[in-house]
Amino acid sequence: MIKLFCKNLPRNLSNLLYNEYNNYEKELKFLLNTYRSRYAWTNDIDFEYFQIFLSLAIFYRRIIVQLDSAVDFSERFLFSENINGIKIGNYLLSKAESRKLNAIVNDFRFLCGRYNISNYLFDFENITQFLFKFREYNKNIGILSAET
Question: Fewer Cβ neighbours under 10 Å: the N or C end of the chain?
């Protein structure tokens, strides 16, 4: 799944996301296999489900948050002043490009909203915290019972 998200990103950026994903995935597999009784609630969940949410979280944290910040910043100037663009290093960000970035952010938000996925799920310090939030999310949408 992470490959799909990184498909059109620059190679150096996609490699960073792949590495982060692979590290989290290894840690996740280790936890689920080593502490089977502690994570017994995961036994009926397909591992691909974890992979999807982990990929979404990494993409959100590393790409969407950055794009959203860039759009928020640029729109303050691009649409309130009579200017052609904002120079970022050697790059000139135009109004049209800012709209495209905003569309990407909005599409991601729409996708998450459609499946009741909160940004809360994406904000974690370690894989254990991710598992806790993942469990809570699944309880809230009715995949897991309240007892698990």
Answer: C
